[in-house]
Amino acid sequence: MPGERPAPPPDRLYAVNAAAAQFYASRLPASRKAARYLHSHSINTAADPWQVGYAPGRWTELATHLRAAGFTDEELTGAGLGFIHNRSGHLLDRFRDRLMFPVTDVHNRVVGFTARDLGGRAEAKWLNTPETAIYRKRLLLYGLGQQLANRPAGTGDPIVFVVEGAADVLAMHRMAAAHAAIPETQPLYAVAPCGTNLTRDQLDLIQQTLPNAHLILAFDGDDAGRRAADRVYPVASRWPGQVSGVRLPKGQDPADMLGAMGPVWAISEIIGAVQPLAQVQMTNTIDRLFTTKRITDPVRFAEDRITAYRAIAELFVDAPHATRDMAEAAAEQLGLDSTDVARGVIEAWSARTDTPGGTDPPPDTAAQPFTAEPATGPPAEVPTPSSPPHGEAETDITVSATAHNTGSRRAGTTAAITRHNPSSGMTVWALADGIGRHAQAATAAQMAADIAATVSLRSTPAAGLHAARAAINAFYGGVHPSQAGDASLLVVSAYPSPTRRHGVRWELAWAGDCRAYTIRAGQLAQVTADHTAVRQRRDQGEHPSPGIADVLLTSSIRAGDISVCPLDEGPLLLCNNGVHRAIPERQLAAELAGMSDPQASADRLARGVGQHNARDATVLLIHARSAPPALVTTTRTNAHATVTASGSPAALAKTSFTDAGTGPAAVTTPQAESVRRFGQPAAGRRR
Fold it and tell me: Which residue from 499, 474, 300, 305 is spatially nearest to 392, judged by alpha carbons?
């Protein structure tokens, strides 16, 4: 409009906010009310880089000070520090009789304030700077800028606690200092939204400034905190890395806990309560069902059970790696058996998605010709063909190729390893798929593949899986479950001649839902059987409909079943679930049936995953140019349990190794440990 003054430039807004922060900090020592509040929340302003201050109760004290310092009325109102009174036209202070917490951007420049009322007469307990040219609350997080400028001690990927308010951030920061005194711990950060729910933009800000962070929501343990968690869950559950939650004690926030028990015990209590975020949300959901009387007695009333299962079914899909713990936690709340809960959740999801029942569909008929379309994707790995065994002809060589597609992520959570022993002529392939998308999923996958391949080369695939299980369980022994990794694993051994291994040309062992396929008469045949809830029910003679049960693992490298299977002919396609969920079986069949160049086929399939979705995917193709044997043998690592079958079809022997002492490596279950080992490997091991 004509005559209207231009808005102050950003540099003047930064300057006036910095001057205001200094003014408020200078007034803090004289306020007894501020001192009482800080003491009750265990906030030490002398040692912390937060520049906490106090806004005096008079109407124009800040304005008078800043005018004398050379700032204009337009700059004060443009920064949200003051406003023009409608009637008098005077410039008045926006913040009065409040404890002041400066909000900074990622460069640690003061852009605004969040303020706590100390007088008890204000309508709003907390008051924030209004939207300005430099203060946009959906793009800011309280505490992030200060901690980026003064990074907490620790090694490895950061852990970021998202709490409700500024006082909680300062409380968590003091706890983090106590945590940092423990050797080899991860750096802990704490942030809070400023007058808004956690937004996608704020999560992006964390991802940009603290990549690979483990995100933990730690909201207050009251109804308001649970409502806040409900609002945030849809956004936070899409966090690309590891995401967890904490159910704080009822009626307490981090500041209350710090004041009640001190920093060491408070951080130990909080870390000990860390769970998968979906599990925290599930617990809150069941609590709400009871509170609102939507359910009253699930033990007696079937309708209550159905209501509960329907309410929590989708949360099981969000955390397939935690389904056992979630089923047990839900069972404890509902007074039911965990097996009944798991079954009820699966049935509720199936009814919700309205998927038809029936048995497994047959494979497609004759493979159709497939022409790969151009697609973008990361470069595939160089093929790793094995060397021919000493004294064998070139026609007996087994060749293989691997290709990866990590989608939009910089690093994937799958691992594929090949080992070859020239003296014995034996070759081993191991494919592991980390459960989840966090850093420890990738660590577990790499360890599992490496150990299983190395041991299998000297023994059998089942022994390789046992060794991987024992090593990973020991590696994560004493580590909190939220920081432990897990993976599905598939191992294939190729023997140089039918006489090398009781007439078996190939031997497979697996745990989880990585798959192996082959071609028979032009048709795609799945050699392995998925260790999922739906497969478990089919094995028991039921006919479940597809749905949530297809993704809930009942086995993994850390626990559960290990299956072994002989195979007398190839070729073989090994892949993780990111491949077999994205690529149609017709295309898989076409690549296997017409495979002449394994690397080209693997590349096409990996690129094809990128066309369908952004899952982390790995394809491993194996081509054997030798005649199959007539005898097939399936062998457990326990020498006393051997099953022999004859004929060409693969014979599947599903065997459980959960009984302690039956195999070379008894299964162990990691337990939650104290704060000393949160996020660390077991003692004596290094990552």
Answer: 499
C-alpha atoms less than 13 angstroms from C-alpha of 681 in its C-beta half-sphere:
14
Token representation of residue 310:
């329907």
The SS3 of residue 561 is strand
For residue 405, give every residue at least 6 positions away whose Cβ sits within 8 Å of its Cβ, in sequence order, or none.
377, 378, 578, 606, 607, 609, 610, 616, 617, 618
Question: Whole-angstrom Cα distance, residue 494 to residue 516?
Answer: 14
For residue 113, what pLDDT is reported? 97
d(CA 486, CA 108): 38
Residue 376: the pLDDT is 35
List, in sequence order, every beta strand (DSSP E) within 369-486.
398-405, 414-421, 426-434
- Give me the pLDDT at residue 409, please: 52
CA distance 429 to 412: 18
- What pTM was computed for the model? 0.68
Interval 296-330: pLDDT, tens: 999 999 999 999 999 998 888 777 777 778 888 99
Quick: pLDDT tens for 2-11. 556 678 999 9
Q: How wide is the angle at C-alpha 576 spanned by C-alphas 275 and 318, nearest 5°?
A: 30
Question: Phi/psi class of residue 425: alpha, beta or left (left: φ > 0; alpha: ψ in -120 to 50)?
Answer: left
Encode 576-600 in three state secondary structure: CHHHHCCCCHHHHHHHHHCCCCHHH
Preceding peptide of 187 cis, ω within 30°:
no
390-406: per-residue pLDDT in tens? 333 333 445 677 776 66
Half-sphere exposure of 385 (CA within 13 A, CB side): 14
390 class by beta-carbon count within 10 Å (0-12 exposed, 13-18 middle, 19+ buried): exposed
Tally Cβ neighbours within 10 Å of residue 294.
12
